[in-house]
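Reminder: ligand-aware prediction takes two inputs, not one.
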Amino acid sequence: MKPGVLRLVLGDQLSDDLSALDDLQPERDVVLMAEVDDEANYVAHHPQKLVLVFSAMRHFAHALRQRGIRVDYVALDDDSNADDRPRSLTAALQQALRRNNLRSVVCTEPSEYRVKQHLQQFTEDTGIALTMREDRRFFVNHARFAAWAEGRKGLRMEFFYRELRRETGLLMDGSEPCGGQWNFDHDNRKSLPAGVTPPQRLRFEPDAITRSVMDMVRQRFAERFGSLDEFAWPVTREQALQSLRHFVAQLLPAFGDWQDAMKTGAPFLWHSLLSSSLNLGLLQAREVCAAAEAAYRKGDAPLNAVEGFIRQILGWREYVRGIYWLRMPAYQHGNALQATRPLPAMYWGGKTQMRCMAQAIDDTRRHAYSHHIQRLMVTGNFALLAGIDPQQVHAWYLAVYVDAFEWVELPNTLGMALYADGGLLASKPYAASGAYINRMSDFCKGCHYDVKLKTGPRACPMNSLYWHFLIRNQSSLQGNPRMALPYRNLATWSEEQRQAMTQQAQQFLNNELD
Ligand code: FAD
Ligand code: DLZ
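Here is what comes back for the chain with DLZ:
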């Protein structure tokens, strides 16, 4: 009989058709899954993220065992092995090879550069044979993305997305896009009228496995930012599929209309809440896009909603992964605007009188979630305008969201929110004053600050910070044609006006932030 193989399944590889499980022979192979300190601590993960990852891993291991597959599962709270418990994935691998008397490893390529490096170092150090297979769960592999990027001046998502629409046939009528246009963004920027109430979130109440992980996380990670009280995330494929069905039937039809809206006390609106299931592997991008398209074809959801949704997954999700693998490891050090301010304490729940920030951060604390516009145009925008160190912002986003894995978080944070990659990902900085937040939300009503004011003690800080950002970065940004409008406006200001605005912003930065 051929010798058995150790098949490593990582915490975000919880998919039945994972390439690492191809040709698995239950009578001789063993699957290794390991909860380890290094992964739990490399950033200060929100307790809900820890519970989600560990509970989903435990449920996946249980499902494999039910199929007759042998699983060697290393639990963080397995006290029978406390002295010898592995701290890292590679230590877990080494121990499992010995324990199961196996000599070779098969895995699927890790989604994060850091983890891939560890595994490659492991084979170099030990000489143990490790076969790394492609991750087929994405529409596009690294070679395909590199070929698309090759020789292009700008790597704009829109063109990549159109190629994928043609290639996959998603929302295509023959060779033409459904509805005669590729992009329905302009229909998807409505603010939410008073009286329109968002639907309830679908909740998955913690079962015995999740409750036991919650106890462990409460005990071992008590000091972490974030609450466990409202944990309701899908932890199994069945729950993730239920979530998908709920989204398509109840939320997708209005997804487009309110895609960019924000509302006090409504953290989820019509967003799908599918990112954690997608990123853990409980759902596949192809099936999610297919379900959305089917709703359009049946007449159950309008094109602006379905196109807007599919663009996020087929377009943005694939594109940011492509950028990540194309440009790592240099990408993670980007700081094109030379931002150095430390991350203020308000991001970790410290006091702030800015209602928009308080709302986004409190949603984050309660749910390990805030929707895209809050991430980009509130917490991200503030960090951009205030010149906060991209590394600290990156560590925050990577820690606090249930869906945060570096391959998707880093390009969104460094590239989209902070323009720290110098415009590789975004054609201009997503910088906005308080007027944008006021237009798209009800946050400014009842705020300590007045969104209509630019200077004075009650002036909205987003206003002075916005102009300070433009003044401070004028030499790098004014040549960008997409920044022409604000710089034309700034050109009409007197030197005194510029100075007054700079002083207003600096006062806030020096006195109101810690
Ligand atoms: P929906 O609004 O319902 O969108 C549907 C799906 O599209 C999402 O589930 C997601 O898979 C995909 N998607 C949407 N926008 C993006 C995007 N910009 N990039 C990649 N995929 C996208 N997304 C993550 O999955 N993990 C992260 O760590 C993450 N960090 C972010 C950090 C910043 C600073 C910003 C601005 C965005 C970040 N995003 C991240 C993208 C986006 O905000 C989340 O995917 C989205 O909010 C998840 O909620 P949802 O499932 O309800 O999304
Ligand atoms: C995020 C996370 C956490 C908290 N813990 C583990 C773990 O103990 N074991 C594991 O296999 N994966 C974990 N993950 C996911 C990894 O940090 C990492 O994101 C993936 O392995 C992708 O490379």
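The radius of gyration is 24 Å. The longest helix spans residues 303-327. We will return to this case in the review session.
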